[in-house]
Design brief:
Largest sheet: 7 strands, mixed
Bound molecules: pyridoxal-5'-phosphate
Strand content: 5-15%
Shape: globular
CATH class of the largest domain: Alpha Beta
CATH architecture of the largest domain: 3-Layer(aba) Sandwich
Structural class: alpha/beta
Order of helices and strands: HHEHHEHEHEHEHEEEHHHEHHEEEH
Helix content: 40-55%
Number of helices: 14
Strand order of the largest sheet: 2-8-7-6-5-3-4
Radius of gyration: 21 Å
Length: 399
């Protein structure tokens, strides 16, 4: 049977390869293989009870209709309070838009900042969340990779950023704390980045979904830098901080773009899940003890994981300051095992019952990149961390 052709845009659409690896792991598990998975990027904690209760109350109260595309006023007010409190700026409810996850705002921000087919450029961190590059390309703009440097604790060199800014730069994507490296961008760098954004007149998409998952130092947002909120699409969500990934709730704020972001919601999702919007009010305003306990447990696991990784031959792992990923440099291990890529190592580890992701899952490797990395999430029990890393040590040997 023949069918009409499928567009090049769709055929070329990128993906989150993590989902493909996950399918591979699940298949092995179904076949009876014991695999310890460090692939998953979601908290292995339940949603706090007071948030669940709020959703149940909303369902019982019949909160099942469409809402304004920007979200119900009470939820936008709660987000405005949260952003104002945590970023130290004045965010108004009318600046806020709510969607089914923070992810949709990546595409909406690119759509608001660029036009298709005219060479508009978006600077994206590499390695980085793969959806940035795939959405840039899907919107007909050009993705310009900004390499992150291990020497800078996985922030980037400001000279590297300067070298990538051109008259066509429309948007810079920042993600702090960062997936996959756990790196955070410090205040002085954010100030310099802000000065560059003003000088060259581009937007910033501040992906801050890990803002509450930080271990060392204080979380800083580019939106807090003097005069930067106006040109920042500030984005955060419920998935990570409140262990709510499947609930699908994210939010973004910007004083002039909010109506445009809301129009994108009208054109795609109509509105965010109504009951979840009620639950997020309780989450943002309510006690944060569960979040703090979860972050304390992540910190404990981080410390153990990084110590065990650094005990292995050919592995060098920085201490991630935030998010829930370790991103060890595997150059020595590759050399020892006579492998050419982190992907080959990933496949070898999977055969030994340890699932990880490889650097190429986080964007096209930059030309000249000599280092090789894997990503391990510590959203799994301490027992699994010890078991999985013992298996990995069996492959790599001790220092
Ligand atoms: C950097 C980054 N941004 C956005 C998202 C998507 O978050 P949400 O579940 O709110 O759509 C993720 C999820 O893994 C992420 O790692």
């Amino acid at each position: 049977m023949t069918t009409p052709s499928i567009s090049r845009r769709t055929q070329g659409l990128g993906t989150e390869n993590a989902f493909e690896v996950l399918a591979e792991v699940n298949k092995l598990k179904r076949e009876g293989k014991d695999v310890v998975s460090f692939c998953i990027g979601q908290p292995d904690f339940g949603t706090p009870n007071h948030i669940r209760e709020a959703a149940i109350e909303a369902i019982k109260a019949g909160k099942s209709g469409y809402t304004d595309s920007a979200g119900i006023l009470e939820a936008r007010e709660a987000v405005a309070r949260y952003f104002s409190r945590t970023r130290g700026i004045e965010v108004k409810a009318q600046d806020v838009v709510i969607a089914n996850g923070a992810k949709p705002f990546i595409g909406y921000a690119i759509a608001c900042a660029t036009d298709p087919g005219i060479g508009d450029e978006v600077i994206c961190p590499v390695p980085g969340y793969p959806i940035y590059q795939s959405q840039v390309v899907a919107h007909g703009a050009t993705a310009v990779g900004l390499p992150l440097s291990e020497e800078k604790k996985f922030s980037f060199d400001l000279d590297d950023l300067r070298a990538r800014i051109s008259p066509r730069t429309r948007l810079l994507i920042l993600n702090t704390p960062h997936n996959p490296t756990g790196g955070v961008i410090g205040r002085s760098d954010l100030e310099e980045i802000g000065a560059l954004a003003k000088k060259h007149d581009f937007w910033i998409y501040a992906d801050e979904v890990y803002s509450q998952i930080i271990y060392d130092g204080k979380f800083e947002s580019i939106a807090s830098v003097e005069g930067m909120y106006e040109r920042t699409i500030l984005s955060d969500g419920a998935s990570k901080s409140y262990a709510m990934p499947g609930w699908r709730l994210g939010f973004a704020a910007n004083p002039s773009l909010a109506p445009h972001l809301a129009r994108w919601v009208t054109n795609t999702e109509s509105c965010a899940n109504h009951m979840t919007q009620h639950a997020i009010i309780r989450a943002l305003d309510g006690p944060h003890d569960d979040t703090h306990a979860m972050v304390a447990e992540f910190k404990r696991r981080r410390d153990v994981m990084v110590r065990l990784l650094n005990e292995m031959d050919g592995v060098s792992c920085q201490m991630p300051a935030g998010a829930f990923y370790a991103y060890p440099n595997m150059n020595g291990a590759l050399k020892k095992l006579n492998l050419r890529s982190a992907e080959q190592l990933r496949q070898m580890l999977l055969k030994e019952g340890v699932a990880v992701l490889a650097d190429h899952h986080f964007g096209r490797r930059e030309p000249g990149e000599k280092n090789h990395y894997i990503r391990l999430s510590y959203c799994t029990s301490m027992e699994n961390i010890e078991k999985g890393l013992a298996r990995m040590k069996g492959v790599l040997g001790a220092k």
